[in-house]
Design a protein that fits this description.
Elements lengths: L8 H16 L6 H7 L4 H8 L2 H24 L5 H15 L6 H11 L1 H9 L3 H17 L8 H17 L1 H7 L4 H23 L2
Helix pairs in contact: 1-2, 4-5, 4-8, 5-11, 6-7, 9-11
C-alpha cells in the first residue's frame, strides 16, 4: 500500500494525539480518532508511528525528557535552596497539565512491563539528578538551614504530593461534583500548599 506523505502530517498526528489523550484518556482514544483529528487516515498513523502504544511512548519520552532537563537545571542552578524547591514543585504543576496521562501510563507500565519502565527511566540518568540534589541538601544541612533528610525521601515526597492530584483529578471532579475550572483553581492553591508543606518539613 502506497502512503501519501502530506507535508506536516506526522506533526499533526502527534499534536492531535496529545490533545485527545488529554481530553479522552489513552483507553478512550482510538487510532481512528487520532487520524480524523489530524486530517489524516489510519494508514498514516500506522506508517509513522506503528501503533497507538508507540505513539504514546513517544509523547511519554518527550514529557520525561523535558521534566528531567528542567528539574536538573533547577537543582543545578544558583537559586537559593528554598527557591529551588519552589521551582522544582512548580515544574510539575506546569508540565503535568500538558501531559496528564503520563502518571497513569507509568502505573500501567509498572503492571505490564516493570523491567521495560526501569530501563526507559534509567536511560535518562536520574542518578545524576539525585547526586546534584544530595550535594545541595548536604550543604544546607551543614549550615544548619535544614534538618538531615534522605534525598530519596524528599524526592518521593515531592513526587507523590504533586502527581496524585493529576493522576486522579478526573475521578475527584466526578466524586465531589466540582467543575474542571474549579478543580484547576484548586490545583493552583494546592501547589502553594505543597511548597509550604515541603519547606516546613525541612526546617531544623
Amino acid at each position: 500500500m502506497i502512503i501519501e506523505q502530506s507535508p506536516g502530517v506526522k506533526e499533526r498526528i502527534l499534536d492531535s494525539a496529545k490533545g485527545l489523550f488529554t481530553e479522552k484518556g489513552y483507553a478512550g482514544t482510538s487510532v481512528r480518532d487520532i487520524a480524523a483529528a489530524a486530517n489524516a487516515n489510519v494508514a498514516h498513523v500506522k506508517y509513522y508511528f506503528g501503533s497507538k502504544a508507540k505513539l504514546f511512548e513517544i509523547i511519554f519520552d518527550e514529557a520525561f525528557d523535558i521534566l528531567i532537563e528542567r528539574v536538573s537545571g533547577i537543582v543545578d542552578s544558583n537559586l537559593p535552596f528554598e527557591e529551588m524547591i519552589e521551582m522544582w514543585i512548580t515544574t510539575y504543576y506546569d508540565l503535568l497539565p500538558r501531559y496528564p496521562q503520563i502518571p497513569m501510563f507509568v502505573l500501567s507500565e509498572i503492571n505490564r512491563s516493570p523491567e521495560g519502565l526501569v530501563k526507559k527511566i534509567s536511560q535518562k540518568n536520574p542518578g545524576k539528578l539525585l547526586t546534584l540534589l544530595s550535594e545541595r541538601m548536604d550543604a544546607e544541612v551543614g549550615r544548619g538551614a535544614i534538618r538531615p533528610v534522605a534525598v530519596l525521601d524528599l524526592g518521593l515526597s515531592i513526587l507523590s504530593l504533586c502527581i496524585f492530584p493529576f493522576m486522579f483529578g478526573g475521578y475527584i471532579t466526578r466524586t465531589v461534583s466540582i467543575s474542571e475550572e474549579g478543580y484547576n483553581a484548586l490545583l493552583k492553591e494546592h501547589k502553594e500548599h505543597v511548597i509550604d508543606f515541603v519547606l516546613r518539613g525541612l526546617q531544623p
